[in-house]
Amino acid sequence: MSTIETTANKANQGPGKREQTKAANRKAILDAARGVFAQLGYGATTVRDIIRGTGLASGTFYNYFKSKEEVFQALMDESALRVRPQLKQERLKAKSFEEFLYGMFSIFFNYVVEDHRAYEMMRANSGQIRVRMDTPEVIAGFDELRVDIDDGITRGIVPPVDAGYLTATLIGMAFEIADRMVQRDDPDPVAAAKFATSMIVGGINKVPLEK
Amino acid sequence: MSTIETTANKANQGPGKREQTKAANRKAILDAARGVFAQLGYGATTVRDIIRGTGLASGTFYNYFKSKEEVFQALMDESALRVRPQLKQERLKAKSFEEFLYGMFSIFFNYVVEDHRAYEMMRANSGQIRVRMDTPEVIAGFDELRVDIDDGITRGIVPPVDAGYLTATLIGMAFEIADRMVQRDDPDPVAAAKFATSMIVGGINKVPLEK
Amino acid sequence: MSTIETTANKANQGPGKREQTKAANRKAILDAARGVFAQLGYGATTVRDIIRGTGLASGTFYNYFKSKEEVFQALMDESALRVRPQLKQERLKAKSFEEFLYGMFSIFFNYVVEDHRAYEMMRANSGQIRVRMDTPEVIAGFDELRVDIDDGITRGIVPPVDAGYLTATLIGMAFEIADRMVQRDDPDPVAAAKFATSMIVGGINKVPLEK
Amino acid sequence: MSTIETTANKANQGPGKREQTKAANRKAILDAARGVFAQLGYGATTVRDIIRGTGLASGTFYNYFKSKEEVFQALMDESALRVRPQLKQERLKAKSFEEFLYGMFSIFFNYVVEDHRAYEMMRANSGQIRVRMDTPEVIAGFDELRVDIDDGITRGIVPPVDAGYLTATLIGMAFEIADRMVQRDDPDPVAAAKFATSMIVGGINKVPLEK
DNA sequence: AATGAATGAGCGTTCATTCAT
DNA sequence: AATGAATGAACGCTCATTCAT
Q1: Residue of A15, B138, B171, D36 with fewest CB within 10 Å of its CB?
Q2: Domain B72-204 has CATH 1.10.357.10
Q3: D60 touches strand E (CB under 7 A)
Q4: Which residues of chain A have pLDDT under 50?
């Protein structure tokens, strides 16, 4: 009897307590993992490091993720999922290739500045060796870009250049410029996006000059 | 008499058997390491994986290198040392910024095609995660590039754009385009170098079109 | 209602199965360690020797002790903790220096005979070399003895001799005589205690003669 | 012919050069070992530590000693061999048991003060645990003592007490008092010998009092 | 006899994962 | 579902000893 009452109370609280704690635990793990990965880098991070950051027991980790790799991917995907819809919307509303590019770069550089922490995770320093990592969701995001470029070429908006290399160029620039940007004292995503866009559109001679 | 001669000869005989095996062992370790790093990625590679790839005993590894990191750096430096002098020479003989760029990209893309194995090492797939690693020698190479660009700007050969972002652009493009290139059936470093150069020089509208 | 009771009972139920196994494992490790240390000596004993002596997995050792040294000290402390209270009580009830000495030696020699195994641990034969080891608890025991002697001198019960050398004499005799005693066919702690006591009290001429 | 001449030259130099270097190497190893054992303790010392202290190659060690244990014993025996003849002489000239004891203790305590280094080796500190080691030669020295005591009893010079326990008493006192003595600011072997002798001869009441 | 690289067993320890509670 | 102790493979590394030179 008392048991039923207790359950009823729980039921009134909105979503079942079970579901609530489950979500909370998942979040706790992800939050802890984000911090630890950023601090130690993927390779050096252990599952124990992650759970230590939550109040949970080590075994509990495995109720939520199958492995260290899985959390890491969940984390990356989370980032990508946040950015991808923005990118998609931007693409849809772009009226020219230049606008399209500028929109892309803006979103990415803004994301990098805002979500510094997650970004650092992709650029962890273990010892002397700088490492950069790309996960499937990130790669999927790039693939979308590729599709859009192909599409743009078909529709005559983008000149019919080597689409693979163009995608590569955009991605390479995006990551590498982002890296420099965040190391500067006062990161300016607008300037970065302008630089990148004008480089693609008109080459070095069209790039805004340094004041 | 003959004894004296023999002794004399001995002294001049070139490397003794000891030195020969030492050199051979060092090479064996480096070769094995190159393969394993390329296959498993730096993080996932263990010292034991490397020695397993040679016929040597586990302890022998430590006669040649203090750690996994040390072999890795030896390997990277080896590559960088091979490429950097070429790059330097190219820089010296370049008469315009365009020539300079084309020379750089050519050398790099040719290196990637020729020394596939070493390049893969810098771009290992460990599990699902793509990784790029930069060692001190590689970073030093980047710094040289940066210095050259600054120099070019001073001398009026390169437009006075944001030199950091320009360097980032060149490096990002080089790696990312190289990646696509080696995945193609018939990698063409000349085409890649032309693409990259013309993108920088005149932007997308000056890039050679697909046939 | 009944639920509440059950829960309450549970809380008071005594050690759960978990606690039981934990205690059992700890004991297993200590027992194994005692045996191995006695057999091989401290220096030659490895953590693996110890765990091999239990049915446990190698990693499990580290759930209980951080190192070989830590088990060893736990073992020594265990012994010392068993003997020290007895010694203390004896000290308190002793009415003369002779009684005090006799009490001390009795307890020690009895302990050695009874707890042969633990004593051997302090006097291990590793190879040809006989070794004696003193841990902090043991040393603390010695210090107590020293304090008592100083105290006895102050109170006029013990002649004002060099207290450090007197302590040294008692300790040296105790260990060395114990060694001989346990090698004899029928160890007689009473005889040993009488010998030691009378040697201290009256010198060789007061020592009971051999029959 | 020339060979003979060469040999002759060497022969004039005293012992053959071979024998000379052999002896020198042996000495070098022993000297190095003495220092290292004293510094690191027996357990922590490696063969490499020892040879590092000589100019020799690691393999050469094994031309002189079969193992680490063997050097250690050689070292201990060397000490014992230095002391034993002195003890023997003392024994022979002693006219009473008291003289005999005093002679023994004097020699031992003097040896300890003089040869601090070697003595520390027997009392190495590894971590928290004090260790004392006795080697066969040392034990042999003690056995001689035992024989002398038996002999003294037979000849009526020593009271017919338990000879084993008496020997144990002498040894225990000797080592333990020596230990305290060397820790004092100004070690006084004469005082220590007087203390020990009078303790044995007349018990605590005959021991010289502290000034 | 001397050398010093090679050997490989073994060490202490970590850690992802399992599983009884 | 949560717990956290148990597991044992694997790791990096050391070192006594061997052996080709």
Answers
A1: A15
A2: yes
A3: yes
A4: 1-14
